[in-house]
């Protein structure tokens, strides 16, 4: 925006100068000079009133003979016309004449090109300087993006439901409070902490709380704020920011939306802001490498798109500490609601637990919104406390807003996902060749992944045996089978699982020679056959018979595994129920708990549906 503004100013300026130059050039409009038509000029010659004529390639200037009693000689100008007779006439009438080769030219050239250029460069220089010192007004305004807070006043008590993140940040606080202590021991402290998580989960709040807890100043700036500025300004501001911060150390520099600044360079669209962003990013990297942590400056940054970040930012010595700030589970939501209800007068009928249960997928900002909206609703109808009805209505309103963004799922969907994920998890724990389950979650995240079962490999694997591949296949099918067992019906949620399952079976047959019927042969060089079929026929054309055999073998592997999984889950139907119900209640179940259920330590409860859910 501002860059365009400046361009417009310069453009207008050049237009102005051009008009002026042409004006002068054409008519040589000096104050005592009269512009006259060429015919009048010729008449003056005929009348013997001209004393001298000076010709330039485009204009003719004439000096009149002084009239009686006048001291000042009047001058006139006219545009030069191709006139063969002129010189003869001038000679005949004894007019002195001369010519300048470039008089008019040099003047107009100067005005047309050099003067505007000089002025433009002066302007640009001022703009560049403006980034660090006082400058143009526009710069002064954008400096407001940099936000400095001597004391944020935010503490860890204001941030709820992110206990793991808080735990990790305690070290940073301790360090900011006692940089000397760490210095003495030569301990290494992270320079850059990257907070990763969806928008509204409290990343900014958390960074402020770290500053508040450590009682240090908080510098914050948004990554997108850098990008819209003039060439060179972003980099200058980064320098400026670090210089200021080092003066105020110990302190925190917080860069919100760092992805706007630190996008992978090649992936960036070629646009005007591209080069500028790169300059700014490079300056940031330079500053990060240059500053000494012992001075007590900690850099924090937030992003909801870590995958687009330039790897250079994540290298050791830069943002090498990553902290996940995820959507809160039901317990976290309850805590967040309590934080925001602190200063709100609640009715006796309010049960925060129910509100938490009614808001799956909500982030902290959404919950703050619910409480605020409820207070407004209650006030509008003149109530003296915020009752459950106001909260319910507020939830509905916020859901309506969120539904546009597709974040909220219905109770029925939640149930399906709970059984689906339980299926994955139980199969993973029942077969020997699958990775152990670390965590199961049905908290909606993003649009594509509904829930997830996180398996962590216990060791790095390079080789997989046939039975291990089959076990992996089984885990993938577990979700679908669980849905079938519970609801006698299947949903579209398993599509990705089935794709991956088919991939595995396909690879087993085509690449690894693991099919009994086709034997130890490979039939395709590529790794992902379904993509490679598009114009990528490998050296070995397959006969129709072999193709059919491959299809049959793949089918057989998938179907055999399917019935195996069905056997496992039918046998464990009680556990499936227990686990799914626990998931619906808590939304997140850790691997430990899951294994307790499998060991039968958690008995199936005769459970009423969780509170508040219909
Ligand atoms: P982010 O930086 O992750 O997008 P913010 O920190 O800007 O999110 O959160 C916006 C607001 O939402 C906060 O000011 C706060 O009122 C509320 N909020 C978000 N997360 C939490 C949380 N974990 N605990 C309490 N309030 C939260
Ligand atoms: Zn699945």
Automatic annotation (TrEMBL):
<keyword id="KW-0067">ATP-binding</keyword>
<dbReference type="InterPro" id="IPR000642">
    <property type="entry name" value="Peptidase_M41"/>
</dbReference>
<feature type="transmembrane region" description="Helical">
    <location>
        <begin position="110"/>
        <end position="127"/>
    </location>
</feature>
<dbReference type="GO" id="GO:0004176">
    <property type="term" value="F:ATP-dependent peptidase activity"/>
</dbReference>
<keyword id="KW-0378">Hydrolase</keyword>
<comment type="similarity">
    <text>In the central section; belongs to the AAA ATPase family.</text>
</comment>
<keyword id="KW-0482">Metalloprotease</keyword>
<dbReference type="GO" id="GO:0008270">
    <property type="term" value="F:zinc ion binding"/>
</dbReference>
<feature type="domain" description="AAA+ ATPase">
    <location>
        <begin position="189"/>
        <end position="329"/>
    </location>
</feature>
<dbReference type="GO" id="GO:0006508">
    <property type="term" value="P:proteolysis"/>
</dbReference>
<dbReference type="InterPro" id="IPR003959">
    <property type="entry name" value="ATPase_AAA_core"/>
</dbReference>
<dbReference type="Pfam" id="PF06480">
    <property type="entry name" value="FtsH_ext"/>
</dbReference>
<dbReference type="InterPro" id="IPR027417">
    <property type="entry name" value="P-loop_NTPase"/>
</dbReference>
<keyword id="KW-0812">Transmembrane</keyword>
<keyword id="KW-1133">Transmembrane helix</keyword>
<comment type="similarity">
    <text>In the C-terminal section; belongs to the peptidase M41 family.</text>
</comment>
<protein>
    <recommendedName>
        <fullName>ATP-dependent zinc metalloprotease FtsH</fullName>
        <ecNumber>3.4.24.-</ecNumber>
    </recommendedName>
</protein>
<dbReference type="InterPro" id="IPR041569">
    <property type="entry name" value="AAA_lid_3"/>
</dbReference>
<dbReference type="Pfam" id="PF00004">
    <property type="entry name" value="AAA"/>
</dbReference>
<comment type="subunit">
    <text>Homohexamer.</text>
</comment>
<dbReference type="InterPro" id="IPR003593">
    <property type="entry name" value="AAA+_ATPase"/>
</dbReference>
<dbReference type="Pfam" id="PF17862">
    <property type="entry name" value="AAA_lid_3"/>
</dbReference>
<feature type="signal peptide">
    <location>
        <begin position="1"/>
        <end position="28"/>
    </location>
</feature>
<dbReference type="Pfam" id="PF01434">
    <property type="entry name" value="Peptidase_M41"/>
</dbReference>
<dbReference type="InterPro" id="IPR005936">
    <property type="entry name" value="FtsH"/>
</dbReference>
<dbReference type="GO" id="GO:0004222">
    <property type="term" value="F:metalloendopeptidase activity"/>
</dbReference>
<feature type="binding site">
    <location>
        <position position="497"/>
    </location>
    <ligand>
        <name>Zn(2+)</name>
    </ligand>
</feature>
<dbReference type="GO" id="GO:0005886">
    <property type="term" value="C:plasma membrane"/>
</dbReference>
<dbReference type="GO" id="GO:0030163">
    <property type="term" value="P:protein catabolic process"/>
</dbReference>
<dbReference type="InterPro" id="IPR037219">
    <property type="entry name" value="Peptidase_M41-like"/>
</dbReference>
<feature type="active site">
    <location>
        <position position="421"/>
    </location>
</feature>
<keyword id="KW-0547">Nucleotide-binding</keyword>
<dbReference type="InterPro" id="IPR011546">
    <property type="entry name" value="Pept_M41_FtsH_extracell"/>
</dbReference>
<keyword id="KW-1003">Cell membrane</keyword>
<keyword id="KW-0472">Membrane</keyword>
<keyword id="KW-0479">Metal-binding</keyword>
<dbReference type="GO" id="GO:0016887">
    <property type="term" value="F:ATP hydrolysis activity"/>
</dbReference>
<dbReference type="InterPro" id="IPR003960">
    <property type="entry name" value="ATPase_AAA_CS"/>
</dbReference>
<keyword id="KW-0645">Protease</keyword>
<keyword id="KW-0862">Zinc</keyword>
<dbReference type="GO" id="GO:0005524">
    <property type="term" value="F:ATP binding"/>
</dbReference>
<comment type="function">
    <text>Acts as a processive, ATP-dependent zinc metallopeptidase for both cytoplasmic and membrane proteins. Plays a role in the quality control of integral membrane proteins.</text>
</comment>
């Amino acid at each position: 925006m501002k860059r365009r503004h400046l361009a417009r100013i310069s453009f207008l300026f050049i237009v102005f100068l051009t008009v002026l130059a042409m004006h002068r050039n054409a008519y040589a409009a000096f104050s005592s000079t009269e512009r006259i038509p060429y015919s009048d000029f010729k008449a003056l010659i005929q009348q013997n009133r001209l004393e001298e004529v000076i010709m330039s390639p485009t204009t003719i200037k004439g000096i009149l003979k002084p009239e009686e009693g006048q001291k000042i000689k009047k001058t006139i100008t006219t545009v030069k016309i191709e006139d063969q007779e002129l010189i003869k006439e001038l000679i005949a009438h004894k007019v002195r004449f001369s010519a300048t080769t470039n008089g008019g030219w040099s003047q107009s050239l100067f005005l047309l090109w050099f003067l505007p250029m000089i002025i433009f460069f002066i302007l640009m220089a001022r703009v560049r300087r403006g980034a660090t010192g006082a400058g143009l007004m526009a710069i002064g305004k954008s400096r407001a993006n940099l936000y400095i807070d001597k004391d944020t006043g935010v503490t860890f008590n204001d941030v709820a439901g992110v206990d793991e993140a808080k735990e990790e940040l305690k070290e940073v606080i301790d360090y900011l409070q006692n940089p000397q202590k760490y210095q003495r021991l030569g301990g290494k402290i992270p320079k850059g902490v990257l907070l990763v998580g969806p928008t509204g989960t409290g990343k900014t709040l958390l960074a402020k709380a770290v500053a508040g807890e450590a009682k240090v100043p908080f510098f914050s700036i948004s990554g997108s704020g850098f990008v819209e500025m003039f060439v060179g300004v972003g980099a200058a501001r980064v320098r400026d920011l670090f210089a200021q911060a080092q003066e105020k150390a110990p302190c925190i520099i917080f860069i919100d939306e760092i992805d706007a600044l630190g996008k992978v360079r090649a992936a960036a669209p070629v646009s005007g802001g591209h080069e500028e962003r790169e300059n700014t990013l490079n300056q940031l990297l330079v500053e990060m490498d240059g500053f000494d942590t012992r001075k007590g400056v900690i850099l924090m940054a937030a992003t909801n798109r870590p995958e687009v970040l330039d790897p250079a930012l994540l290298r050791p010595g830069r943002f090498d500490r990553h902290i996940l700030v995820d959507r809160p589970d039901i317990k976290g939501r309850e805590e967040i609601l309590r934080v925001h209800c602190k200063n709100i007068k609640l009715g006796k009928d309010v049960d925060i637990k129910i509100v938490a249960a009614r808001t799956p997928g909500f982030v902290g900002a959404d919950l703050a919104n619910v409480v605020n909206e409820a207070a407004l609703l209650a006030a509008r109808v003149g109530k003296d406390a915020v009752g459950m009805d106001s909260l319910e209505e507020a939830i509905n309103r916020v859901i309506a807003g969120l539904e546009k963004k597709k974040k909220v799922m219905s109770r029925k969907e939640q149930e399906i996902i709970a059984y689906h994920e339980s299926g994955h998890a139980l199969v993973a724990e029942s077969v020997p060749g699958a990775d152990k389950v670390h965590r199961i979650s049905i908290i909606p995240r993003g649009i594509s992944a509904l829930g997830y079962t996180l398996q962590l490999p216990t060791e790095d694997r390079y080789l997989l045996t046939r039975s291990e591949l089959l076990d992996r296949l089984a885990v993938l099918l577990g979700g679908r089978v669980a849905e079938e067992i519970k609801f006698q019906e299947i949903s579209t949620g398993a599509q990705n699982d089935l794709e991956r399952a088919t991939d595995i079976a396909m690879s087993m047959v085509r690449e690894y020679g693991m099919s009994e019927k086709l034997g130890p042969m490979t039939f395709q060089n590529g790794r992902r056959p379904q993509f490679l079929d598009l114009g990528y026929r490998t050296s070995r054309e397959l006969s129709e018979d072999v193709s059919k055999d491959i299809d049959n073998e793949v089918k057989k592997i998938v179907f055999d595994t399917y019935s195996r999984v069905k056997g496992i889950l039918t046998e464990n139907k009680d556990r499936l129920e227990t686990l799914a119900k626990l998931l619906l209640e808590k939304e997140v179940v850790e691997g430990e708990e899951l294994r307790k259920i499998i060991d039968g330590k958690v008995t199936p409860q005769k459970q009423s549906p969780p509170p508040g859910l219909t």
